[in-house]
Amino acid sequence: MTAIVLAILLLAAPAPQSPMLPTLLLPSENGAWVVRIETSGGFTGRGLGNYTLSSSGDVKCVSLAPQEPCPARLVPETQQSIARLVTAIPVVTPGGAPESPGRRSVCSDCVTTRMTVRRRDDAGEQTLSYRWDESTLGTVPGEVLRLHAAVIALASPRIR
Question: Which domains does the chain have, with CATH numbers?
Answer without folding.
Answer: 2-153 (3.30.1560)
